[in-house]
Amino acid sequence: MVSADRPSDIVPATGDVESSRLEAEASVADLVAEEAATANAIYGVIVSSAVMASVHGVSVLRLAIAVMATLLIYWAAERFAHVMGERIVHTRVMTSDRLRGHLGSGWELVSASFLPLAVLLAFGALGAGVDDAVLAALLCATSLLFAAGWRVGERAALSRVSRLVSALLSGAFGAAMILLKSLLH
User: pLDDT by residue (tens digit) across 46-100?
Assistant: First the structure.
């Protein structure tokens, strides 16, 4: 039983309410950041796979450089779009802190492709031809996309069947890149 001798026994102190509100905002911000990071990583793997699937007639090293250059351009364009969107919606003056915040985020778009690029370069270093090295990298990327789809389904507490559907849909992007490569070359 609650004693109502003092108002503070029933109503939380203002500091407690403010603290709870700030914690909730931080939690939402963390979830939004995690969502953006996951989306950037998936997008980066798909973009790098598309570059690997569509470029032909170059060495493995030149292809890896082309993939990295493309990802960096996509990252810069995505960051630019976020800065412009923020300016339109919030009409804020862009402070150096905000700009650093924008430039410090979104790197998953680039870094998620490090493993497929490592596979590409490793197969090339081991003497595989460009097409075989690209196929190995695309299989790696497809596996990453499948795993990301499974993880997303798991985090969303989906049933195993729904997780599998999520994983297969994600992996289908990688399979589409393998098909694209075989049709183009």
Answer: 999 999 999 888 999 999 999 999 999 999 999 999 899 888 888 678 888 888 9
Q: Note the maximum CA span of the chain.
A: 83
Could you identify the residue written with the tokens 């402070």? 95
Question: In the block, which residue shows the tokens 């049709």?
Answer: 183
Q: Are 37 and 151 in contact (CB under 8 A)?
A: no
Q: Which among 40, 35, 101, 119 is positioned nearest to 74, based on CA atoms?
A: 40
CA distances to 9, 12, 25, 52 from 18, in Å: 17, 10, 11, 51
Check residue 12 and report its DSSP letter.
P
What is the band of 31 on the pLDDT scale with cuts at 50, 70, 90?
Answer: confident
Angle, vertex CA 90, rays to CA 87 and CA 96, nearest 5: 55
Residue with tokens 């081991």: 126
Structure tokens at 70: 């493309």
Which own/partner pairs from 154-161 qualify as long-range (CB within 8 Å, at least 24 positions apart)?
A: none
